[in-house]
Amino acid sequence: xxxxxxxxxxxxxxxxxxxxxxxxxxxxxxxxxxxxxxxxxxxxxxxxxxxxxxxxxxxxxxxxxxxxxxxxxxxxxxxxxxxxxxxxxxxxxxxxxxxxxxxxxxxxxxxxxxxxxxxxxxxxxxxxxxxxxxxxxxxxxxxxxxxxxxxxxxxxxxxxxxxxxxxxxxxxxxxxxxxxxxxxxxxxxxxxxxxxxxxxxxxxxxxxxxxxxxxxxxxxxxxxxxxxxxxxxxxxxxxxxxxxxxxxxxxxxxxxxxxxxxxxxxxxxxxxxxxxxxxxxxxxxx
Length: 286
Ligand code: ADP
Ligand code: MG
Fold this sequence. Notes:
Layout: H1 14-19, E1 27-36, E2 39-49, E3 54-59, H2 65-73, E4 80-85, E5 88-89, H3 98-107, E6 108-111, H4 115-118, H5 125-136, H6 141-154, H7 171-184, E7 189-193, H8 201-217, E8 221-226, H9 229-235, E9 238-243, E10 246-252, H10 253-258, H11 263-269
Parallel strand pairs: 3-8, 3-9, 6-7, 7-8
Antiparallel strand pairs: 1-2, 1-4, 4-5, 9-10
Helix pairs in contact: 5-6, 5-7, 6-7
């Protein structure tokens, strides 16, 4: 059931296939490191992300996934390593002008697990998306409202959701709003940190399908972070397995599932439902 869901080969990046010339990666991380006091949260993490690709980062809770995400976004200063986004090196630290900050935001955006904490409880759906749009793309109010409706439509929401507040929405709908807000900026890279972890399985599947559609339709790449190898296999071409802040293994997601090189990966795979699987209470915090 697990094995036949996806081809085991890594598809070539779309642009490279079409034009016959390889395009530079949209994201390149070399030797990322982050410590908190004596504790090493992330150690020597390197990877590249091609245009149009979905790279998964998978590992148990505490393995350093969110710290990697935060460093990619510049929400956390790294202690060592190099980061290049859309061909431009990002220095480890330094003050940014608001213009530079906006430019970087258009390169990379993030959606977190819990949109409830990242959405303003008092802001309507329409305002959330309109604010993101207004910050980055000056346009007339009427045109902006048209764009907001278009963005909501692209994540499966409708005009009637415009005046609603987060509390009036379901978990899946809130995640769609967070997605629309991120897409408003038209980022080249979208980091999804446990973005479907808090959702029921059927809603999870809807959001994963939506993410796949969006990647088909737009010039966008994903870094898809999850503790769940089954979820990762539904969306990613390639995965990077993290344990204790380090990359222990990486390769085509299908291969990691069917033929893991590490015992740790094998254990992540053990969480994948197989024949005879019966639903049971979740034991792992989402
Ligand atoms: P994951 O997202 O894979 O669950 P995290 O990146 O959140 O892992 O955490 C990796 C490690 O870094 C954990 O041991 C965590 O306790 C630690 N850590 C993360 N953020 C901080 C922080 N702000 N201060 C101290 N330790 C932190
Ligand atoms: Mg995390």
